[in-house]
């Protein structure tokens, strides 16, 4: 395909504004899939994505479209997720494109992540085509939204496409604007190969598969390629594109998007962001790659059955190939044994990884409460970073501590400004600014990340009846008075239950946590004291009373099937239990800190 006829684009939007549905319509209209093959939200291929109705992984698909000039164009669509935790995916996809469709909901208008995503697209110098979706809704107000796009984002919206992914209105217009406005990639076929890996995954039959965008040169099967960061060479066996299922092609040329597979058996050989070149005739300089990702939230991951440790290690390695934002390293807990400390971009990311590990790799996991990364300045002049409360040095060794703050941008209707201010202050937030957007307000706050990961967003949503949208980015470290809150079960400290909290909240958190754990920990044969402590000082105590009867005592009489059922049920309950010393502790206990307040 002549590069003049190629268009590479992403779709960006705030969550739920309709990216995946628009992608469906584009696929449908270009006849990429027959009606029979078409399922709704075809690109959300993971079960988890379908169940939750969100896009987690970016996907690519090649569409062929006959433009108004009668020529056939190859449109490479890269669908991206909208949730703030997956911004990293968005950024990588954008680097493989020349343009982006910016979808804005005609009823809701510009939201916090619309802005965040536009900034990402502008960073990559992309041509942005504004698309106002859901114009079929009775509450749609496309003129107001056009005005918002101009006022808040500063983009010319006079030509914005008005469409409804539901009824199909305007979809053809989107395709025409893609052809007319998005620049074609430069034709550099005769240069040495230079391609960037923007995603990868592990296929049980083919090994590691890399999604690539070629900037210069071309790839044919049988070529020997080289990874520029490691110098590792490999033979290409399969090349192709996604339609959206993998489809073999004879060659991939400059400007095109597709996948390569070959003698790349080790998942670590394929690094997202790396440049691939030809071993025989390499390019002189690699592409600039991607900004490294910084995990914001850490937690411990342990298997319920310690015999599964190696399986967890293997699963994490494979998942990391598909999700470059995931980091992990081995750790040991006195309470939980051998496991991994894992870093995530946010709580949703953590939740998704945990669920993928359990579903795709058949593992039963215990996760510990999430923690941010603290900077600890010691009295001996040293600075250490701590993401596991257990690693906190003795109080006497600590000069002071710093915690990460984020700059949070919240957009809400005027009526809820008071509520947003109240919860932001309650979460130790510092007010920065307030701007009016028509009948809505954009507030910015500096808030400790630690408070955001607890329940800031849930609270924000519930206190604004779901109207608030939130986006945040790391805004540096600030000094805070923090302490370690420990939990003792049956007199023994459980390291996996320790958390770092602000000193002003420590008493109340300790009390709430002890109460919560009392509810969560099932009664056992003996009485279990649950204590919260700061240093040597016990600040709260609750007791889990001893069990009075065993489960079978309920069914005197000899109904064996009923007995079996009860035992099964008890076993079911036990699956997620971990013996900590003499106490059986269920998974929820390790997350209890997120549920207090
Ligand atoms: P994420 O993948 O989670 O980021 O969301 P998304 O932006 O891809 O949104 P998605 O396509 O999943 O659509 C969100 C919801 O809006 C779904 O319930 C769609 O059915 C609905 N929707 C999408 N487009 C339209 C439209 O044009 N009109 C109406 N009425 N509903 C729409």
Provide the spatial order of strands within the biggest beta sheet. Answer: 2-3-1-4-5-6
Any idea what the CATH architecture of the largest domain is? 3-Layer(aba) Sandwich
Number of domain modules = 5
- Write out the distinct hetero groups bound to the structure: guanosine-5'-triphosphate
Terminal Cα span: 59 Å
The assigned structural class equals alpha+beta
What fraction, in percent, of the residue positions are helical?
25-40%
The major beta sheet can be summarized as: 6 strands, mixed
Query: CATH homologous superfamily name of the largest domain?
Result: P-loop containing nucleotide triphosphate hydrolases
Low-confidence stretches: 53-58
Explain the layout of strands and helices.
Elements: E1 6-13, H1 19-29, H2 47-52, E2 59-66, E3 72-79, H3 87-94, E4 99-105, H4 112-123, E5 127-133, H5 142-153, E6 161-162, H6 171-181, E7 194-203, E8 207-216, E9 224-227, E10 233-242, E11 246-248, E12 257-262, E13 275-278, E14 297-303, H7 309-322, E15 327-333, E16 337-344, H8 347-361, E17 365-367, E18 374-378, E19 383-386, E20 398-413, H9 417-426, E21 430-437, E22 440-448, H10 449-463, E23 469-480, E24 482-489, E25 492-493, E26 499-502, H11 503-520, E27 528-534, E28 537-544, H12 560-574, E29 577-580, E30 583-586, H13 587-590, H14 592-595
Parallel strand pairs: 1-3, 1-4, 4-5, 5-6
Antiparallel strand pairs: 2-3, 7-8, 7-13, 8-12, 9-10, 9-13, 10-11, 10-12, 14-16, 14-17, 15-16, 18-19, 18-20, 20-22, 20-23, 21-22, 24-25, 24-26, 24-27, 27-28, 29-30
Helix pairs in contact: 7-8, 9-10
The structure holds guanosine-5'-triphosphate (GTP).
């Amino acid at each position: 395909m002549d590069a003049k006829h190629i268009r590479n684009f992403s779709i960006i939007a705030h969550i739920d504004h309709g990216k995946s549905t628009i992608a469906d319509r584009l696929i449908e209209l270009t006849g990429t899939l027959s009606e029979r093959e078409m399922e709704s939200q075809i690109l959300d291929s993971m079960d988890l994505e379908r169940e939750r109705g969100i896009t987690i992984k970016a996907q690519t698909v090649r569409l062929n479209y006959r433009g108004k000039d009668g020529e056939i164009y190859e449109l490479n669509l890269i669908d991206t997720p909208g949730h703030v935790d997956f911004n990293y995916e968005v950024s990588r996809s954008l680097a493989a494109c020349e343009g982006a469709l910016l979808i804005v909901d005609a009823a809701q208008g510009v939201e916090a992540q619309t802005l965040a995503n536009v900034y990402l697209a502008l960073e990559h110098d992309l041509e942005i085509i504004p698309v106002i979706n859901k114009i079929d809704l009775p509450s749609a107000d496309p003129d107001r939204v056009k005005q918002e796009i101009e006022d808040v984002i500063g983009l010319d919206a006079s030509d914005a496409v008005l469409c409804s992914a539901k009824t199909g209105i305007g979809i053809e217009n989107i395709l025409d604007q893609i052809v007319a406005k998005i620049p074609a990639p430069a034709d550099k076929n005769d240069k040495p190969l230079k391609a960037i890996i923007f995603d990868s995954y592990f296929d049980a039959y083919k090994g590691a598969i890399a999604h690539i965008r070629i900037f210069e040169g071309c790839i044919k099967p049988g070529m020997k390629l080289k990874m520029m960061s490691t110098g590792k060479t490999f033979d290409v066996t399969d090349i192709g594109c996604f339609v959206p299922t993998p489809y073999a092609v004879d060659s991939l040329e400059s400007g095109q998007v597709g996948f390569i597979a070959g003698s790349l058996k080790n998942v670590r050989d394929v690094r997202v962001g790396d440049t691939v070149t030809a071993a025989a005739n390499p390019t002189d300089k690699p592409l600039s790659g991607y900004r490294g990702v910084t995990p914001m939230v850490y937690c411990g991951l342990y298997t319920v059955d310690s015999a599964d440790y190696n399986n967890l290690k293997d699963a994490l390695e494979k998942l990391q190939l598909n999700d470059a934002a995931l980091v992990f390293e081995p750790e040991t807990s006195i309470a939980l044994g051998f496991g991994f400390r894992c870093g995530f971009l946010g709580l949703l990311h953590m939740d998704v990884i945990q669920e993928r590990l359990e579903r795709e790799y058949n593992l039963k996991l215990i996760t510990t409460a999430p923690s941010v990364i603290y900077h600890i300045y010691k009295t001996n002049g040293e600075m250490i970073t701590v993401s596991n409360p257990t690693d906190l040095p003795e109080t006497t060794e600590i000069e002071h501590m710093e915690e990460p703050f984020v700059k949070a941008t919240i957009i809400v209707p005027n009526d809820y400004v008071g509520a947003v201010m109240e919860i932001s202050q309650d979460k130790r937030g510092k007010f920065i600014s307030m701007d009016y957007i028509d009948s809505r307000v954009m507030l910015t706050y500096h808030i400790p990340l630690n408070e955001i990961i607890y329940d800031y967003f849930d609270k924000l949503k519930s206190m604004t009846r779901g109207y608030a949208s939130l986006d945040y980015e790391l805004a540096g470290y600030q000094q805070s008075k923090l302490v370690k809150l420990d939990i003792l079960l049956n007199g023994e400290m459980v390291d996996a239950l320790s958390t770092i909290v602000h000193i002003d909240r420590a008493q109340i958190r300790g009390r709430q946590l002890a109460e919560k754990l009392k509810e969560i920990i099932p009664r056992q044969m003996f009485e279990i004291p649950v204590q919260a402590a700061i240093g040597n000082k016990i600040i709260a105590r609750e007791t889990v009373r001893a069990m009075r009867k065993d489960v079978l005592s309920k069914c005197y009489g000899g109904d064996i099937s009923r007995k079996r059922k009860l035992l099964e049920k008890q076993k079911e309950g036990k699956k997620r239990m971990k013996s900590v010393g003499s106490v059986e502790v269920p998974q929820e206990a390790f997350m209890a800190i997120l549920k207090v307040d």
